[in-house]
Design a protein that fits this description.
This protein is α/β, with parallel strands linked by helices. α1 (about 15-25) crosses α8 (about 210-220) and α7 (about 180-190) packs across α10 (about 275-290). It has two domains: about 5-165 and about 210-230, Rossmann fold; about 170-205 and about 235-290, Alpha-Beta Complex (UDP-galactose 4-epimerase, domain 1). α1 links the parallel β1 and β2. It has helices at about 15-25, 60, 75-80, 85-105, 115-120, 140-155, 180-190, 210-220, 240-245, 275-290; strands at about 5-10, 30, 50, 65-70, 110-115, 160-165, 170, 195-200, 205, 210, 230, 240, 250-255.
């Protein structure tokens, strides 16, 4: 009998790619997504789909072997404006899933965490998993809190839980309306013949990791018992100005975003797709969708 994985947020950008990858392995796949940011068009028809909030998911009915938790309130600015809502979704929702995982005897729990938002402005770069955690947003605080709860459930209840700390993920299916999807935003502007706005001088840097490499990291930890956490990035800094140039997008500079992190780059070699190649594949996907 094939193994059974629950992917929360499986109609979203990263989650839908994970769903496809598990199905290609011959796994049974269930998806929980409330479609608040996910797209029904991303859903693979071979999944068992439950349209609901993760806190209302019928886990006793689904009974997965593995939980891959990607559902989240992912807007950093909304977390700043409404930290209580952010904590309710991201912390309470995450802890509820962890508790249910223990009750149901789940064999592996994978959590989509964050690199830059947990570490904050780097004390050294690239930032290793041992870099001090200094989140500067409620979103980062929530991700770190869930990691601490994971440590508790691992130590006290024996749950095989692991956190993957993502850099800036990009690729096909990314939402161009997303708060953090600068690659998708730039491509959307390019295809519309519009001018993009770069916050500040554009010399702020990010570690852009292709979604295919993120999927590969998830599959690797699915098969292991290592507790992590693991950074998932490239170890390469790219400025926003460089990104605009690589994409050939017209851009102007606007005011700096208050509190925006200046640098973010993770010590990781899991992101192996060259940026130019990943951007080309992403652009081609957006072009096909437009036509």
């Amino acid at each position: 009998m094939s193994r059974h994985v629950l992917v929360t947020g499986g109609a979203g950008f990263i989650g839908s790619h994970l769903v496809d990858a598990y199905l290609e392995r011959g796994w049974r796949v269930s998806v929980v997504d409330d479609l608040s940011t996910g797209d029904r068009g991303n859903l693979n028809p071979r999944t068992e789909f439950y349209e609901c909030d993760i806190r209302e998911a019928p886990l006793d009915k689904i009974r997965p072997d593995v939980i891959n938790h990607h559902a989240a309130q992912m807007d950093v600015r909304r977390s700043v404006a409404d930290p209580v809502f952010d904590a309710d979704v991201n912390v309470v929702g995450g802890v509820w899933l962890l508790q249910k995982a223990v009750e149901l005897g789940v064999k592996r729990f994978i959590f989509a965490s964050t690199g830059g938002a947990i570490y904050g402005e780097p004390l050294f770069a690239p930032q290793t998993e041992e870099h001090p955690a200094n989140p500067l947003s409620p979103y980062g605080c929530a991700k770190l809190a869930v990691e601490h709860y994971m440590n508790y459930f691992r130590a006290v209840h024996g749950l095989r839980a692991v956190a993957l700390r993502y850099a800036n993920v990009y690729g096909p299916r990314q939402n161009s309306k997303g708060e953090a999807g600068v690659v998708a935003i730039f491509i959307d502007k390019k295809l519309r013949g519009e001018t993009a706005t770069i916050n500040g001088d554009g010399e702020q840097t990010r570690d852009f990791v292709y979604v295919g490499d993120v999927v590969a990291a998830n599959l690797a930890v699915t098969d292991s018992s290592d507790p992590g956490p693991f950074n998932v990035g490239t170890g390469i800094e790219t400025s926003v100005n460089e990104l605009a140039s690589l994409l050939g997008v017209k851009a102007v500079h606007g005011p700096s975003k208050t509190g925006e992190q200046r640098r973010s780059v993770l010590a990781s070699n899991l992101g192996r797709t060259p940026l130019a190649d990943g951007l080309r594949e992403t652009l081609e996907w957006f072009e096909r969708r437009k036509t």
